[in-house]
Amino acid sequence: MDSAASKKPFCERVHEFFTSAKFLIYLGHSLSTWGDRMWNFAVAVFLVELYGNSLLLTAVYGLVVAGSVLLLGAIIGDWVDKNPRLKVAQTSLVVQNSAVILCGILLMVVFQYKERLSTMYDGWLLTSCYIMVISIANIANLASTAMSITIQRDWVVVVAGDDRSNLADMNATVRIIDQLTNILAPMLVGQIMSFGSHFIGCGFISGWNLFSMCLEYFLLWKVYQKTPALALKSGQKNTDDQELKHLNKQKEIGNSESPVEGSQLMNETAEVKKKTSCCYQITEPIRTFKDGWVAYYNQSIFFAGMSLAFLYMTVLGFDCITTGYAYTQGLNGSVLSLLMGASAISGICGTVGFTWIRKKCGLIRTGFIAGVIQLSCLVLCVASVFAPGSPFDLSVSPFEEVLKHLFGDSGSLRESPTFVPTIEPQIQTNATVFEEAPQVESYMSVSLLFAGVIAARIGLWSFDLTVTQLIQENVIESERGVINGVQNSMNYLLDLLHFIMVILAPNPEAFGLLVIISVSFVAMGHMMYFRFAYKTLRSRLFLFCSPEQKPDPNIPSLSNSV
Questions:
Q1: Per-residue pLDDT reduced to its tens digit, 525-555
Q2: Residue 486: partners with Cβ closer than 8 Å, 6 or more residues away
């Protein structure tokens, strides 16, 4: 088949590629991630600016987002499993982009009339705007989670077919797209906010999401048309078969007079009525949550998934916390966008390295090598804590800023809302947060910090791809959504803990302690993966040496992964 394809004219092969389902998935993912990266970069800067050079509001936003996915991850995954693929993808797309557009418009209003809003109703109106911004952004993130599970964890597997090498290549290409958008999108929106204003930045992001939503909607429909296998879903098929079987039984028993069969029908009818009762429907999310976590725990790749989740318990990434800390250390928007671009290039190197190492060493060993690389690079981050220019100072109480915002300097509880600072820096509405970045004596510490973070992305993205493919290969189709939903919940659970750490210690003097804790959790995560890899490789070796031995059901079937 490959030789026949190679004999086709070059123009025909190019046309086939650009009209294939694989390319359309890449194009749609590029549009989606471009908007996501612009929004994720900008929202951190917006929240720091709104709250007056403090990381507290960004930490609250991260806390809300992480808590929501933690509680609803399994339910979102179950919804993905039980509904048609096209309906799930299109619904998630519309909700996500609409929420970002609405949030952008609200932020434009806040930036334009901030001073007036802060004086109305003793500042409660401005506080309400903060709450609305965080709430709407949280809805956008939940829809983004459903979209990610649908496309990256399900559609990609179906389009790739049974070819694991093709699946690895598609996963790597999706990650390369992520990293390229990490380079370009933050640079673009950073320059817009630096040379324009926050108001213009919000408007640009809202306009982009409106345009992207329409085009992505069409691309999803085209991919669905070109891939007939997407219309077949095992979980949905089983549900439909059970309903059809129940209806057929009703017809058959209706024509018979057997008391046993009639009693059986009555029991089934009572069960159906129970499932349609009000109490059953109310408690359905709780049962879904429980069943999802139990199913996740029983997976053969449980420790591999846990190891990935532990990597989220860190402040050593380009999220809103690290961006805010870099701003307090004197880095402006242009420098931050360039650092994010360098991080993306490092991630691309890790992605390309993943495909090469996997072919040479196997999937499981690739994860082991990636873990060693990441831990080695994070040593630079630990060194930055004690380097010149570091604000690390344990004599400063980590709870000082929290108490200050709650009680003020007088020691009595404030009457004004918690989210509204009493004294804000004198920044004009159309100025950017980057222009007010404070100056520091030495950049040695922050340079070492970002050098370690950027270099560690090589191992991080290789490891992420390893665990992602392990889950794709070893989770059955009917549980693909709920297992990935619980995996997202685990990721956000550890992410939630790191935001709680920042809320308890938001001052820059305590950031060094957070760095040390972060490196410790990353090390624990890789130790869990090393345990999983050792157990799996040892079991595979034992089975190879003993052909008559039956496979252990608790060991993943990874004939091409070892």
A1: 999 999 999 888 887 665 555 554 444 544 5
A2: 73, 74, 77, 292, 293, 295, 296
